[in-house]
Amino acid sequence: VQLQASGGGLVQAGGSLRLSCVASGGIFRLKAVGWYRQSPGKQREYVASIGAGTGIRDTRYGDSVKGRFTISRDSASDTVYLQMNKLKLEDTGVYYCTTMPPNGSWGRGTLVTVSS
Predict the structure, then answer these.
(1) Taking 90 as the threshold, does the pLDDT of residue 103 lie above it?
(2) What burial class does residue 73 get, using C-beta atoms within 10 Å of its C-beta: 0-12 exposed, 13-18 middle, 19+ buried?
(3) For the stretch 3-15, what's the b/e string if a residue is b when 16 or more beta carbons lie within 10 angstroms of its beta carbon?
């Protein structure tokens, strides 16, 4: 399964963005999906994940984004979303989506830049 993240951009602190992750090939709708990000000078960080099928309500979040980000998925379109609200400067980074658990194949991420 190849995943492609999109929707990044430049936003002011306090603003919102919605990222999308679409899949090509494989049985995407049967797989849990996660979002990770890599900020300048930092290791890749877990952001959020969502289950598949009967586990679609199994959503989890990293401590730094709890209460601000919401992950969801649309099985009909094989798309996973990450709604990001109340963005902070420290949310800046390249965001990647991947099937869970990560297998080392990250694909092309999408850059989110939060400005003051």
Answers:
(1) no
(2) buried
(3) bebebbeebeeee
Higher pLDDT: 31 or 68? It is 68
Q: What confidence tier does 43 reach under pLDDT thresholds 50, 70, 90?
A: very high
Q: Please state the three-class secondary structure of the chain as a single string.
A: CEEEEECCEEEECCCCEEEEEEEECCCHHHCCEEEEEECCCCCCEEEEEECCHHHCCCEEECCCCCCCEEEEEECCCCEEEEEECCCCHHHCEEEEEEECCCCCCCCCCEEEEEEC
The pLDDT of residue 53 is 81
| Residues 88, 94, 97, 100, Cα dihedral to 10° | -80
The CA–CA distances, whole Å, from 37 to 27, 87, 106 equal 24, 14, 10
Rounded CA-CA distance 18/62 in Å is 17
Statement: residue 25 has pLDDT above 70: no
